[in-house]
Write a structure and sequence with these properties.
By secondary structure, the protein is α+β, with helices and mostly antiparallel strands. The protein has helices spanning about 60-65, 70-75, 85-100, 105-135, 135-155, 180-190, 195-200, 205-210, 220-225, 230-235, 240-245, 265-290, 345-355, 365-370; strands spanning about 10, 15-25, 35-40, 45-50, 165, 170, 310-320, 320-330, 335-340. It is globular and about 65 Å long.
């Protein structure tokens, strides 16, 4: 347990002392510049107030001052861990407004690209969670395997973190010769270590004792509070935008939506583990079914491009859950209004504060990381 600071202006109550603790942002159980103000009595939390910080701000307004193409590097910054879903949803919105068709091969490449990003994001989440609980070896394995995914992105796009690969009309470039084999070999290398992850972490008694029953949400609460992604699927609800509203090539292959039943931190982390494995199988199927053909439909000069008037709402399934975008065009060369629906907003502000009430201080990071929050998705 770490206590970062204590308010010396504590007051006595009938049952003991109330203290105000500042938890984060440098604590291992926090994400980015996120911090939480806790009012505690002993090691029991009476009330919590989340502060997502001010690292990234005002993206939605800044996008209204940049051309349609200039906004692709901008949207990536809303989720540093997985910028690829941000590229995808913005491209989907622009394509719907401008009525741009995407070639079939580009749909498959987009799906493969997004699932690789999902695996990389989940490995990063596993690193954060294992590191927070003290499983340093598992954390190092996860970060190493994530680097293997970033190697693929670097070869495909030229960038390791921000890729700017998905564009209106398709993707920037096709796979290089031999790149499909590199994807397969990399995923086999990662998949071969799943038994090690299971024996060292997921089936470890210490993980069970630390996470079982912690931060529990019922399915009804999850729906009322706006939970999505793993937080919702861990309650037994197989809700996934890729299934209920397919996009790209997600309806071209068979795959399952992993769920768990208990709605606690233990179930949420298991769902992340199961989703990684499902994504790997999905990528193999997409690679086998991918057709030949073009990967890009040309668009007008991007520096003079004006999108027809209209408004649109699109959504996709990011690694953290449902990601939505409301986009308005007034017929100009820039968006008129932009608003994102990000999964970290309800998870990091609404659900986190509710779950921390009556929890122990030692479980703050446990609950925080299991909710899979990314701070810039909130303060955007």
């Amino acid at each position: 347990m770490e206590i970062l600071s204590v308010d010396t202006n504590s007051k006595k109550t009938g049952s003991g002392r109330e203290l105000e603790l500042y938890f984060g942002p440098q604590h291992l159980g926090m994400v980015g510049n996120f911090s939480i103000t806790l009012k505690v009595e002993g090691d029991r939390i009476l009330k919590s107030t989340a502060n997502p910080g001010y690292l990234h701000r005002g993206f939605e307004k800044l996008m209204e001052y940049r051309t349609w193409i200039q906004n692709f590097p901008m949207v990536c910054r809303i989720n540093v861990v997985e910028p690829d879903s941000m590229e995808m949803i913005y491209a989907m919105a622009v394509e719907k407004l401008a009525q741009i068709e995407v070639p079939e091969r580009a749909h498959f490449i987009r799906s493969i690209y997004l699932e690789l990003a999902r695996v990389g994001s989940h490995l990063f989440g596993l690193w954060a969670y294992a590191n927070m609980l003290g499983f340093d070896t598992v954390a190092q394995w996860a970060m190493y395997h994530r680097d293997l995914i970033l190697d693929l992105f670097e070869e495909l796009t030229g960038g390791r973190v921000y890729h700017i690969y998905i564009w209106p009309g398709g993707v920037r470039r096709d796979f290089n010769p031999g790149f499909k084999d590199k994807i397969v070999n990399t995923l086999h290398s990662i998949g071969g270590c799943v038994p090690d992850y299971d024996s060292t972490f997921f089936n470890n008694r210490l993980f069970y004792e630390r996470a079982k029953g912690i931060g529990k949400i019922t399915q009804e609460q999850a729906k009322q509070w706006g939970a999505t992604g793993q937080a919702l699927r861990a309650t037994g609800m197989a809700y996934d935008i890729r299934k209920i509203e397919p996009y790209a090539a997600y309806d071209k292959v068979e795959w399952n939506v992993p769920v768990r039943q208990d709605g606690d931190a233990y179930s949420r982390v298991w769902v992340i583990r199961d989703e990684m494995i499902e994504s790997v199988y999905m990528i193999f199927k997409l690679l086998d079914a991918m057709p030949e053909g073009p990967v890009y439909n040309r668009i007008p000069n991007p520096f003079k491009w004006k999108i027809p008037k209209g408004e649109v709402y699109v959504r996709c399934e990011s690694s953290r859950g449902e990601l939505g975008l409301y986009l308005v065009s007034n017929g100009g060369d820039k968006p008129y209004r932009v608003h994102f629906r990000t999964p970290s907003y309800p998870h990091g502000l609404i659900i986190l504060e509710k779950l921390l009430e009556n929890a122990g201080i030692a479980d703050v990071g446990n609950i925080m990381i299991s909710l899979y929050v990314v701070a810039p998705e909130i303060d955007r």
